[in-house]
Amino acid sequence: MTDDDLDQLIRDLKLGQPRAVRGPGARAACGTASGYRRHRANGESPCAACHQANTETQREHYHQGVKAPERLKQIAHGTLKGYKQHRYRKEQACTMCLEAARADSAARARTRRAKGNTQ
């Protein structure tokens, strides 16, 4: 008797709900973000339901707020670190931080060109 047969027998006898399969052998249900990850891990193309669920989960995660403002460190304006702090908080970077990020990017580009690496 397979697990599916046993689950159907439990339902037929009205003994309650069959036990939930958990652990390493459990199969993530389609239409969930974990189902999407299961498809990807198995090298499959995700079904439409799993793709939609994963998109919604990612969108919710992206739009969640960051730490409580009182727990955030003060922004180091005018530095690359300050620019990254603005990005982390999902806010528009100030002019000083933008200039610092541009200067850093230009310096890295000069270094790459000097080494002969054009990537």
Structure description:
The chain is mainly α. The chain folds into 2 domains: 39 residues, no CATH class; 47 residues, no CATH class. Helices cover 55% and strands 0% of the residues. It has 5 helices and no strands. The chain is elongated, with a radius of gyration of 25 Å.
Uncertain runs: none
Overall 3D shape: elongated
Total number of distinct structural domains: 2
Structural class from helices and strands?
mainly alpha
Q: What is the tally of helical segments? A: 5
Topology:
Layout lengths: L2 H10 L20 H9 L6 H16 L16 H9 L6 H21 L4
Helix pairs in contact: 2-3, 4-5
For the structure shown, list the relevant keywords.
mainly alpha, 2 domains, 0% strand
Give a short synopsis of this structure.
The chain is mostly helical.
